[in-house]
């Protein structure tokens, strides 16, 4: 009577193996889901960065205010008659 139980148990284990550990099994699905979630977070971060860059490009194309602002802060340029005063940061 013991052999049929062992055979059935072995058969159940053999049938469960592909479900849990085989190609397309639960472990692989879980890992793929984790990678997908990480990639979506990275894509969202890059989309926000791209939107900011696109807005900056549009500002630079549309007028002189953005160009003047960049020249003032990055290059320290001033208009004629202005005095540049720099204060130490905190």
From TrEMBL:
Q: Does the keyword Cell division apply?
A: yes
What are the GO BP annotations of this UniProt entry?
FtsZ-dependent cytokinesis
Residues assigned to the Periplasmic compartment are: 22-90
GO CC annotation terms, alphabetical: cell division site; cell septum; plasma membrane
Keyword Ligase appears in the UniProt entry: no
Domain of life of the source: Bacteria
Taken from the record's topology, the Cytoplasmic segments are 1-3
Membrane disposition: Single-pass type II membrane protein
Extract the coiled-coil ranges from the record: 36-70
List the keywords (alphabetical).
Answer: Cell cycle, Cell division, Cell inner membrane, Cell membrane, Coiled coil, Membrane, Transmembrane, Transmembrane helix
Subcellular location(s) per record: Cell inner membrane
Quaternary structure note: Part of a complex composed of FtsB, FtsL and FtsQ.
Similarity field: Belongs to the FtsB family.
Q: What does this protein do?
A: Essential cell division protein. May link together the upstream cell division proteins, which are predominantly cytoplasmic, with the downstream cell division proteins, which are predominantly periplasmic.
What name appears for this protein in its UniProt entry? Cell division protein FtsB
- Per the record, the gene is ftsB
């Amino acid at each position: 009577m013991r052999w049929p139980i062992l055979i059935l148990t072995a058969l159940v284990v053999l049938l469960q193996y592909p479900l849990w550990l085989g190609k397309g099994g639960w472990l692989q699905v879980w890992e793929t889901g984790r990678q997908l979630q990480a990639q979506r977070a990275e894509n969202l971060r890059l989309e926000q960065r791209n939107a900011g860059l696109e807005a900056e490009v549009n500002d630079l194309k549309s007028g002189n205010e953005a160009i003047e602002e960049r020249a003032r802060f990055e290059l320290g340029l001033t208009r004629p008659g202005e005095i540049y005063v720099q204060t130490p940061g905190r």
